[in-house]
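Lecture notes, continued. The same structure-token format from the folding unit now serves as the input rather than the output. Read the line below as a description of shape only.
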């Protein structure tokens, strides 16, 4: 089974983050980079498990998780309810920019 390590780092704007795999940026800007990265990996046909780590940290940010399962959910911040895990709904391209060529 494939294990993919996704490296997260702050993006160019506050509250936005990048995600990269093996030095290649796969998500340029997202408020939810872990789940956006999983969707980018699924779009490339990558299956298996993934872990995330913040750039420069030796510690993993998440335990191994199934890429396809992670791709199906979003973490959203609701004004009245705080953070919630919800099923993924496609967003306008202005919300998540995914780099598709690797």
């Amino acid at each position: 089974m494939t294990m993919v390590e996704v490296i997260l780092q702050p993006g160019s704007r506050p509250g936005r983050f990048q995600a990269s795999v093996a030095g290649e940026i796969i998500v340029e800007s997202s408020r939810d980079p872990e789940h956006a990265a999983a969707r980018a990996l699924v779009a490339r046909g990558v299956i298996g498990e993934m872990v995330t780590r913040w750039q420069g940290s030796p510690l993993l940010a998440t335990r191994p998780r199934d890429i396809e399962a992670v791709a199906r959910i979003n973490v959203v911040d609701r004004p009245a309810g705080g953070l919630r895990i919800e099923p993924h709904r496609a967003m306008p391209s202005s919300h998540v920019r995914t780099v598709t060529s690797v």
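Point for the exam: The chain is about 15% helix and 40% strand.
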